[in-house]
Amino acid sequence: MAYVLVTDGIKEDGLQPLLNESTIQCDIGSLNEFSDRLNQYEALLVRSATKVTAEVLNQMPNLKIVARAGVGVDNIDLDAATKRGVIVVNAPDGNTISTTEHTFAMIASLVRNIPQGTSSLKSGKWMRKDYVGTELYGKTLGIVGMGRIGTELSRRARAFGMNVAVFDPFLTNDRAQKLDVESVEFDHLLDVADIITVHTPLTDKTRGLLNEETIARTKKGVFLINCARGGIIDEKALIPYLDSGHIGGVALDVFESEPPEHNHPLLGYDQVIVTPHLGASTKEAQLNVAAQVADEVLYFLQDKPIRNAINLPGFSKEEYEKIKPYYELTRKMGSILSQCMKSAVNLVEVSYAGKLTELDTAILTRNLMASFLKSRLDTTVNEVNAPSIARERGITYGEKHSSETHGYSNLISVTVQGDKETFSLQGTYIKEYGDRITQLNGFDIDFHPQGHLLYIQHNDRPGVIGNVGKVLGEHEINIATMQVGRKTAGGEAIMMLSFDSELPKNIEETLESVQDIVKVEQIGGV
Ligand SMILES: NC(=O)c1ccc[n+]([C@@H]2O[C@H](COP(=O)([O-])OP(=O)(O)OC[C@H]3O[C@@H](n4cnc5c(N)ncnc54)[C@H](O)[C@@H]3O)[C@@H](O)[C@H]2O)c1
Ligand SMILES: O=C(O)CC[C@@H](O)C(=O)O
User: What residue intervals traverse the membrane (predicted)?
Assistant: First the structure.
């Protein structure tokens, strides 16, 4: 049974994949409510209220994955999680449309004084002259951060006849052209924009991006919007510009500290409109993000690759479908290599050839390394911390793409080097036959790596195969499959046998005493 804790009121409708799984127990409540059993949870699902600090991670020694039902992961200590090998995933696009629409609603409300007009009329006044607005048509919207939300917002702004100037250091000219926006430097955006909206994460570079100095460059009457993260616009810096009338209005969905103090100075300004972090608060977005993270956690608990990990290379659904078979193959290859090469290892070289080279193979290499290290260490190893654990243990690893396919449509070749020996393995995935090991330490062979295996090095002499069968038969061990390979007739040879169940511990020694058998290794649980 896997134990999962869901906090922060994540929408239960979206959690159905987890709630319906009989091998998973899903508890719903806060960290405090379940404080006496935090050590049992393998997965933790949160929105923004739960702070996943290093201390919380320490109280959850079994934790393997933290899923954020939303985009921003600033409530999770990523460094501490990565060090511990805890995967952090988010739901990157489940609330994009809702947050975009909220931002657009804030812009429209701000320039047309809708909240102010509403409260004035509700207080019994009819003040049409006080609330003369500004048209969006023909105005320039400055978007800082052209990611998912920035991009969707630019489409809506263009539909309203606005010009769009964008600052995003990662935006290519080609993409800007396709999106029909002008890619500009930050200073230029400050000079030309009538309305500036920020859509970046809060980082050391974006904290206080709009501050006393940069706001001074903006056009008189500028409108400023923050529906991303509190702190990207420096709240204190707004005050003198609101007082002087330089700023036409401000719309904030997020605050440096949430909730803001009741007497927060910005709340006293009529030109400042606010919402309590409602960007993602729609039925649709909450269902989307809950379903996305529930699927991710379920995939993870079922040993399938996940798509939206923050501390791992990510891939799209399409890429995932393509990479899935190789993910399984690299896991098996890592495990076989680790069990065949028992001595200390200092170098692992992975080479990919054929169609595979079109994919992002970095995740496959991490997966292979995690599987290789896992059977050698008594600590949590996964794709997240495999690079740092390998480094700590003095194991260098690298990958390359090669054109040597040896006739296969795709081929993964791995060489593991130690001080005393070297071990190599080649594998491929064939749609009709599944994963196959095609070469082992220079011997051509062809077997499906599955279940309990026995690897035997022997001399190619008459009777050896029969003797192996006899010894196993005497121990009532039934051979499921058997493959033999040799380099030259009468020279060194290998056998790979597979079995339906676990083998007795001492079977290697018994077999090694058979004439012409050089070495026997059990390879368990592949
Ligand atoms: N108000 C809400 O409820 C709500 C909901 C969803 C997302 N958000 C926040 O909105 C932000 C954007 O979300 P998204 O899904 O579009 O993210 P995203 O990752 O798709 O886009 C972020 C963009 O910011 C750009 N960027 C990074 N550093 C920058 C810098 N120094 N200057 C300019 N651009 C920079 C990146 O290149 C990227 O294109 C996130 O921080 C998220 O936390 C808020
Ligand atoms: O959970 C929420 O409603 C806020 C989500 C939002 O800030 C995000 O980063 O996705």
Answer: none
Give the pairing type, strands 517-523 and 443-447: unpaired
CATH 3.40.50.720 fits 96-274, yes or no: yes
Task: List C-alpha distances in Å: 175 to 56, 149, 151, 180, 367.
Answer: 41, 15, 10, 9, 33
152 lines ligand 1 (CB under 6 A): no
Predicted TM-score (pTM) of this structure: 0.73
Per-residue pLDDT reduced to its tens digit, 314-357: 666 677 788 889 999 999 999 999 988 878 888 999 999 999 99
From 99, 149, 252, 255, mutation site for ligand 2 pocket: most ligand atoms within 8 A of C-beta:
99
List phi, psi (to 5°) of 211.
-130, -175
Taking residue 468's Cβ as centre, other Cβ atoms within 10 Å add up to: 21
Answer for the pair 332, 322: CB distance below 8 angstroms, yes or no: no
CB of 71 within 6 A of ligand 2: the answer is yes
Cβ(469) to ligand 1 under 6 A? no
Q: Tokens standing for 390?
A: 């390998």
Q: What CATH number labels 2-94+286-314?
A: 3.40.50.720
Check whether 199 has a pLDDT greater than 90: yes
Whose C-alpha lies nearest to ligand 2, atom 7? 72
Q: In the chain, which residues fall in CATH 3.40.50.720?
A: 2-94+286-314, 96-274
CA distances (Å), 471 to each of 455, 466, 477, 514, in order? 15, 9, 9, 9
